[in-house]
Amino acid sequence: MNNELFDRANERYRLRDYRGALMAFTECLQDTNFPLTPGEMGLLYHQIGNCLVKLKNPREAIQAYSQATADTAYRALATVECNLGMAYASLRDYTNAINCFEKSVADTTNPTPYKSYMGMGNALMKLGKSAEAGVAFREAALDESNPDPTKALLNLGVCFMALNRPADAVASYESALQFDMQPATRNKVQASLGQAYVACGQMEKAVHAFEEAIADKTYYLSDSASVDYQRAVGAVAQGTSEQNQATQVLQLADMSGLDVAADGTYLGAIVIADTVKPDAARAIADLRAAGVKKTVMLTGDIKKVADHVAQELGVDEVHAELLPGDKVARLERLLGEKGKDDCLAFVGDGINDAPVLTRADIGIAMGAMGSDAAIEAADIVLMNDDPDDIARAIHLARRTMGIVWQNIVFALGVKFAVLVLAAFGIANMWMAVFADVGVAVIAILNAMRAMNVKRYLD
Length: 458
What we know:
By secondary structure, the chain is mostly helical. It has helices at residues 3-14, 18-30, 40-54, 58-69, 77-90, 94-106, 113-126, 130-142, 150-162, 166-176, 183-200, 203-214, 223-238, 245-253, 280-289, 303-313, 324-337, 354-359, 372-377, 388-423, 429-447, 454-457; strands spanning 256-262, 265-272, 296-298, 317-319, 345-348, 362-366, 380-382.
């Protein structure tokens, strides 16, 4: 191998000149003056794959990594399999990704198995397999080569919450807090720990965890975490750490409740109903107009409130009083009921919605007020929290695809027509110019219509 050229390629990669590094590695691979010894071909294809990943070209990266795995003399095949799994996962081919991660962790020469376990866990979460994902995250956390197991422990806690095992989630989050981490990450773990404590009925510990999180004035609790914090404060103020006072109020009033405490004294509970966004009903109507066949509400709220909101918004079907695991089970039923060509989208913002967002065909999170777990699990994030943007996005996507097909049909039609005329000796040079340059200009002008989106945004 041309070591001088290889070193130059590595230097370009180090300087983040990935395109230049790709060209240099490829030139090194094709240099016939320096025959490759066993293992060097795998090394070069590995580096080429890394460059292609950095250049956001996962499909060609998969081809390069696959070539690297064919070189059995290469000593870093476990790392290649891990990178190959990451590339498949970026294309949402989670089945092939999991297969690659499994090969990587099975290789006893793998220097960093935790990376493969993390990738496997994330892929399994995307497939809605929380139990299997939890096993992978646990292995990642226990791996001695993992210098920072906090992310693995945090993801393990999310899996336990999805499986309705809050006590195990508490253990995961508490273990994560034993390690050094960035303040933002620590606040996120504390808030998640607080919600797990609430689910366990340990309200005093929940209040302490939430207060640790919000002690940093730059961190704000998500909507679901704020509700849990308020309920925990009310329960502690009344002295009922094992039974949330808000739950008692709900049972009596069949409405949502907000506990009020001052200076450690419990003052009472305010019975309220959820506020529906002014444009929510219009958003549902717009979705129907856009062709959405069925709207379903999955909520942890009590049935009376859920039915009232569903009737007000015009939702077709409602399922209330659902735990996180219940939402996933209900979504699985809906996936089984939908047609072969239908697509199921789920919109959520809370930490409990993360497993459902990963399992749905399309996961949509509210970005402004949504939890970090929901945003990470979603395919689409609405940064202004306007549900009507979903219908707008559908209209824009259809309009854009319509323009694409217009250009394809027009371009191929004109070229085919000129080709036929040329076969009969009728077409001249200017027809050929029009079929080439003219068609391109017209297609570009037609494509510019996609920029006119004002009427969809008003």
